[in-house]
Amino acid sequence: MKNKQIITALSTATMLLLNTIAFSQAKELEKFTRQVQEVIKKAAPATVFLADYDPQKKILTNELFSGVVVSKDGLILTAAHVCFPNKTYIVIFSDGTERTATGLGRMQSVDAAIMKINEPGNYPSAPIGWSSSLKVNEPCISIAYPGSFNTNTINTPPAKPKRQVVRLGYVAEPLTRRGTRIRTTCLMEPGDSGGPVFDMYGRVVGLHSSINMPVTDNMEIPVDLYRKYWTALNKPEDYKAMPAEDLVPVDSLRMGEKNFIGIAKLDSTFGGLKSKYTDYSLLVKSVNKGKPLSILGTAVSLDGLAAKNLLKGKGFLVTKNSMLGDSIQVQLPDGKMVAGKIISRDNNSDLALVQIDTKLKNTIDIYSLKADSITNDQLGTLLLSAEPAKTGVVSVLASAEFPLKNFSSIGYLGGGTANKNGKLVMNMVQPNTAAMEFLKVDDEITSIDGQKLSTPDDFLKAIQKHKPGEVAVVNGSRDNNAFSYNITLRLRPPANSTHIASRFEGGRSERYDGFWDTFVHDAVIKPSECGGPVFDSNGRFIGINMARYSRVSSIATAARGVQKFVETSARSLSNTQI
Q1: Which residues, at least 6 apart from 45, have a Cβ–Cβ distance to it below 8 Å?
Q2: What CATH architecture is 276-404+504-570?
Q3: What does UniProt give as the signal peptide span (predicted)?
Q4: Which of 1, 187, 272, 524 has the most CB within a 10 Å radius?
């Protein structure tokens, strides 16, 4: 009896200790999240989208990059490989305010450059910090305009504000062996060049310069180089030799202690959350035309959405529709494989609801879910992408909720048209495409899906109404003989980019856009690791991963989009609404 009392007392003490640790960890995460969000609120207005501009023709060129305003009168720090003295640039702030700027000093040897806004004003600005006081594993925040979100850039100003994307990382090397770069884990790609990296005080400590193949190799220009050559860089000159140096003052905070959670500690602090939510993510295997597919699924509850007798002994999960084939098998948390059955699938949202004949213990309660829209006020929220039998992936909320327009998810024909002798004819048929199977150059195209066509734009719009796998009915004539072809459109082939940013591990998802109610985060996941749930640091379900979008970004459908899909899909089980 005495031993039992001792064991009970020890168990109680252990539980109290674990609860105290969990509470302490939650408080640390909450404090860290607030710090990140405060930096973003201060720094984001000063981070600008930049583009090369021809003032005579009044058009933007293809040189799109980033920068940060560091003075109220409009001095902008950026990278030398995208900025040249006396050239004109368009500056677009996050609120859409548009100005022009002129390039000042440039030092290619260290990749540092400055430009100045031409129009007088009192502009949002960020303080300049000291790269010399950075420490290994110190957290840092990147805000910039990655090029993967600029596919619809228009050439003629005024241009719409581009998508500003937040990333969280840490300082891997305060100074590389060359002594002219900082290495951070803030993910970077083309378009980010010249964009700022901030410390946890909201000060600019580096500017994006280049990347290596590993996603942890992101090279930043130390801001101390701008301080060192400040006088020279404020003159419109392209320096071939090192100019005179300025005296760099000592960081006023350097003598004190930087009191921030290190990334290593942050990862361990997330440990409890990682293990708690792993069972909400399930492995889903299937086969499509003989090709094995693997994706994750999110366990959901349909209680309150369909008749109870139809839910008895059943389990349900939501996954990525375009990665779901036939002969579905779902791996349970205990490792057992069970057959899955598709209840509902939706091409527009790219979501599918799968049923299994096993009740799942840990599920997202869709009926009770309070899914509000994700706003800019939440930027910097720490997130966890849960994975089965794994620790999961920590990331940061990088954007507010928005619709991601179609590009990859538009049906692809592989041909183009032109007007010739009063007719709309095929002027291009690419090899190994759906067009090549049916059409030839100089074929007249009269209609698609019964819609009469007269211009190449009409042709393009008619094709773009379809998604990959859908059939377009193409009518026309060849050598005065009428034809009508039912052509199954294909997935757009990936661009043959040789840039190192396109060659990250796992690559881009085949379907990476065309989603509604989406948000961006910087989780490093593979396409086969999409479909799983995303939680915030409080354990709140906020969405499902839908695609690895680029080197720097993953895309998730927000909780309210998932909720709408599941509520609609539940009607497929029963006409009775409860």
Answers
A1: 93, 94, 95, 124
A2: Beta Barrel (2.40)
A3: 1-26
A4: 187
